[in-house]
Amino acid sequence: MIIKEQIMLTAFDLFSEHGIKNVSMDDIAHNMSVSKRTLYELFEDKETLLTECISLNYAQMRQSIKQLESEPITALEVALLFYEELMKRPRWFNRKFYDDLKRYPKALQKTEEEKSRFLKKCIKLLSQGAKEGVFQPNINFEIVALLAKEQAKMIRPPKALSNHSVAEVFNTILYTFLRGISTEKGIAILDRYLLKYTQKQLD
């Protein structure tokens, strides 16, 4: 099982960097120093491997949030730290990966299922933040989460924003978004985090 998970991690990394279509089972076997026979004993075909990669990726994301939630921090801080972790993996924002994904119906369906599951987790986190007093209580968090989901589809910013890095665009969207639903308590946390983040970038 350890070898299988390592193969999925390597494969997902290759798919994310080069696009799904440009990565063959031979490429994955070579990068893992295993035979194609071993690869096909574990995965029926490339789409099966891709689908399992997507499941593992979302499982890791859920585990990351769960770990953060176990810390003595607010839901707002969970969201900020989780986002920071996501942005350490810029390959996830490769448009080629998402364009190629349309060619693999089972993997695409799995992605949509996982997104729906993750959306529910986001709604729960936002509701928890309202109870903690960091998010405004009289907001429909399902709509908020759906708006965030739609915004996330902008894998690469449009040409109008080409003078700015992907990270800068996403950071601005996130902070503006969170500030709009935060209470004074939440805004204070957000401002402290933003100051800390800015200082870190300058170091």
The backbone outline, from C-alpha atoms, is: elongated
Which class of secondary structure composition applies to the elements?
mainly alpha
Q: Unreliable runs, pLDDT <50, ≥5 residues? A: none
Q: Mean of the pLDDT scores?
A: 87
Q: How many strands?
A: 0
Radius of gyration over alpha carbons?
A: 19 Å
How many strands, which pairing sense, and closed or not: the largest β-sheet? none
Strand content: under 5%
Number of helices: 10
Could you estimate the helical fraction of the residues in percent? over 70%
Describe what this molecule looks like in 3D.
- The chain is mostly helical and 203 residues long.
- The protein is built from ten helices and no strands.
- The longest helix has 28 residues, at 105-132.
- It is elongated and about 60 Å long.
- The termini are far apart.
- This is TetR/AcrR family transcriptional regulator.
- InterPro entries: Homeodomain-like_sf, HTH-type_TetR-like_transc_reg, HTH_TetR.
- Residues 24-43 bind DNA.
